[in-house]
User: Fold this.
Amino acid sequence: MTTARENNPGHFLADRAKEIIAQREFSLLLVLVVASAFMTYMSPVFFTWANIEAILLALSVDAIIAVGMVVLLISGGLDLSVGSTLGLTGVVTGLVLNSGQPAWFAILVGLAAAVLVGIGNGLLVARLKINPFITTLGMAMMIRGLLLVLAKGRAVLNLPESFTIIGQGRLFSVQYPIFVMLILVILGEILVRNTRFFRQSYYIGGNEKAARQSGINVDLVKIFNYCLVAALAGVAGLLITARFGSSSVTVGGGLELRVITATIIGGASLNGGEGSVLGAFLGALFMAVLANSLNLLGVDVYWQNLITGMILIVAVVIDVLNEKRKTKQK
Amino acid sequence: MTVVMRAENITKSFPGVLAVDHVSLDLEKGEILALLGENGAGKSTLTQMLGGAIRPDAGRILLEGQPVSFNSSSDALNAGIAMVFQELSLVGGLSVAENIFANRQPVGAGNFVRWGDLYQHTQTILNSFKLDLDPRRLVKYLTMGQQQILEILKAISTSPRVLILDEPTSSLTEGETTFLFENIRKLQKEGMSFIYITHKLFEVFQIASRVAVMRDGKYIGSRNVNEVTENDLVAMMVGRSISNLYGSSEIKTKKNAYFKVESLARKGCFGNINFELQRGEILGMAGLVGAHRTEIGRAIFGIDHLDSGRIFLDGEEITIKNPQQAIRKKIAYLTEDRKNLGLFLNMAVRDNVVAPALQSFTSSAGFIDRRKLGKYASQKMTEFAIDSPTITKKVLHLSGGNQQKCLIAMWMSINPEVIIFDEPTRGVDVGARAEIYQKLREFAAVGTGIIIISSDLPELIGMCDRILVIHHGRISGEVLRNDFDEQLILSYAAGINSDAVKMRTL
Assistant:
């Protein structure tokens, strides 16, 4: 323990390299590159701009929510109501639009509805110490019920172009949602990796008692994180509604599990204290590429769930085995 | 010398226990004060009050002459009192640097962490402790010992005036311990004061300048380290008379052993464990925390796996690979951790007391005979004097003593031939203790062999016919009833009576 290090800087570089390779982001990137190369070889369609855009567009909804979800998971939380929140924002925005209000106003109302859900989840979990799983599961069911009441069970159609432009418009022939996703992922990655405010979540998820001891306002950060993921679900809801020009009460069903799966494949843990925005994004990208590849290869859609589930379990098993190996070395 | 911290008549009671009883204590600037006491003497409670983790019921704390009052340990930290607990507060997914500067990372404009500065500050701290660690390394890749040192470093990095260390060397190697001591001495010269809790007596002489002793929540006194011997300290730690709480043992003639273990070993826990148990004998297992006594009990019962060793019952060798097999052989293990491992806290008294014997209340079709079960439970409540208004009350809401009686009732339903009882009276008030001791005497009287694992020495001396002392997973001594002596047992437990060990080991 007291041996001097001055003679051996290389040993530290080697250690660093090992740690980078051990990072989930690195291995995911490697898998993605290999998978893409394989698919380019297998299918002439895969490496065309049309296909890539389709992948990115499908990815945008999951990836935007994953940015918030991973922060929440890092702080030891969980949100199963993001799919419903996405639907809520879509329906509320659509209804406000159809009542003749301008687009900006409808968007604000839709986002406000999402943030309200986040505040509710956050207060229940942080203040009343109710289990996040139960809280957000209940919230998800409540919102779905509320949607049926609001939209009277029907889809909200005929949205004005002043609104649908945010989902359908293009810049350099790239659809807006892809830009929104990239901006949010890059911004999220920079902020979560580098600002003290977001770093607090790692301490909370790692050891809540110790986090309090080091002066972190644990409740406030938790509530903020629930609001963040809800607001991002709202953003995704706006984009998907605008893209399709309509909103249905069932949109976003099952999305929460897909997003959580992506963040965990990306290195986050349900126990908190670990994960990164980049990892979550790569996890979501991996799942999108996988789904696209299976389609192109003509694999039955029913197989896709089976394979995604398998990959989730494999990712977690690798983590567990790694930890065990590390513990044994000690 | 100036007094940096003073505690005046600090008192704290928990339901049923007066944990700290009017304790006054001075800590001088640049002093290393060792705090000694048996388990349950109140050391932890006292230091947690000094460190702001819990609030005293009465008394006050003065810091450099000024009275202070802490609502949390972060208050205490701000006032310059840092505390390092045995359990770690590190985040495995973050770097060494971010763990040392938890939520204190240097930040620039826009709340952005200045990584360069952070790593440089960390490197400076690591260098000043001659610690060969990369500030960027993730904590989950460090060894337990390195993590323990880091935990201490984290506290030191706040430049506290007083640093409280609770058994800091429990997971350190000898080399790491030496390293830690060097750094503590260096900080002492710079004027930092330490309260050092330990169970290892020899450490007191290595590191401390003064030693204070607590017993039963009371402050017994303090001595300069160069004026005392280990035996003096042991005498201060125990030195209480034994009451008649325990009943009296029926003197038994030496009979053949009916339960015997040979060369039990489990890697990293214990080895070369040999002992015999006679019918009706109460055998004690003494030792310090961390001597792996519990692990021996767990392994005999089949919870943990044994690497080697043989177990005999009535002259026949038996194999126990899991608790079910142990239960079939009528061996019971009553855990020290009744809340987590022993009882179903959220379930009714009735459902707890019948748990291991549920089979006998199940009809051939697989249904449970609820009426028979209720009758049995009521009968057990009377038999074991469990004080609960109904058999359906949740065990959670019972007192510690009644919970323990539930645990006993539960295990008696298998009619055990051997009972291994781990900490039979931890968190149990005196009245219930007497009842539990009485029950144990009754079991012994009908020929059940009982092994009591306890950190409560007076309890072992009061109850047992014979005591085995465990030190570092080995039997360091065997003491017969006629030779019972707290100092002797404690010296075996601390591993300082090595000559005698040779003489007395089986």
